[in-house]
What does this fold into?
Amino acid sequence: MATDQTALADAPAASPTVGPGSDVIIETRNLTKIYRDFWGRRKVAALKSLDIEVRRGEIFGLLGPNGSGKSTTIKLILGLLFPTSGRVLVFDQDATETRKNERIGYLPEESYLYKFLTTDETLDFYGRLFDLSAEERKRRIDELVNMVGLQGARHRQLREYSKGMTRRVGLAQALINNPDLILLDEPTTGLDPIGTRDMKDLILSLREQGKTILLCSHQLSDVQDVCDRVAILHQGELKELGRVSDLLKVQDVTEVHARGLSDAAKQEIAEVIRRHGGTLESIDNPTATMEDLFLNIVRESERRPGARRVSQADTAAAPATSSSANEERK
Ligand SMILES: Nc1ncnc2c1ncn2[C@@H]1O[C@H](COP(=O)(O)OP(=O)(O)O)[C@@H](O)[C@H]1O
Ligand SMILES: [Mg+2]
It folds into this structure.
């Protein structure tokens, strides 16, 4: 199951590994949550004996389908819920010790922001909750508005914002207290590919600032693109844990990328592979992801408004209407 042998090996079960000088920021031990109904009857086992460690400075992903226990884990870390059994340690303190939350930033699955306030007013409100001085609030708000790219819209009310802009305000709000640990619950939900890319870049820039990030998501690409390590949950159980690069590595397959090869060169390479006893599975042009394609088209369109691009396959199938059908046209 767990392939992250080192993580398991350096975590002694008896003594806490989370501490001021320690590199473990969050540790869950045998963490279990069973939701009960109004009568106290056992209803849903949302989380079953979860053991994970989140280390300083990493982006740790909790990946799982809807209902697999991701949000429950985040709420247990924040102390918003009590575990049925097991515990969570955050910064060496029990998660139910809510004072530790001063060092945590939290982006909930749905941000409940007051829609008649502007970005500046919203951030000012949260800055006051953290007792920041007027001067500090001003400095921090300027910094965050720039970081999330809302300079042009900061004085507009949130009710006029798109989903992507609202998510950016949510992130800025989560960062107002300059937290060491950031918990992001489905940060890209509802965002278009550009909003998603921007959010991922923001998350990566937070890691560069030395923050520790726990991100939960059901979007495979979020986790693949930004996380250092990932835990895969299903129905409340940990199914896999390890470095993203290790989990995705296909053993025994060698990948070579080259540009500008002639057909003769390709044949020669195929021959070399055969001579060394290997099996040539494919020698082909790589396909880009839909995301790459879409982002390229949008960026190109921003650079050259009005230009239209038609793919070669499409024009080959359709009757040719003009000799330049293949090219970009106005
Ligand atoms: N307050 C609650 N009361 C009862 N069941 C809940 C409650 N919150 C979540 N659950 C259940 O716990 C399971 C895990 O939910 P959740 O942690 O929200 O999953 P995820 O965030 O991975 O989608 C689901 O089956 C969900 O229906
Ligand atoms: Mg959730």
Q: What stands out?
A: Confidence is low (pLDDT under 50) at residues 1-17, 317-330. Residues 35, 43-44, 46, 64, 66-72 surround adenosine-5'-diphosphate (ligand 1) (CB under 6 Å). The beta strands are 24-36, 42-55, 59-63, 85-90, 93-94, 104-107, 181-185, 212-217, 229-234, 237-243. The longest helix spans residues 193-208.
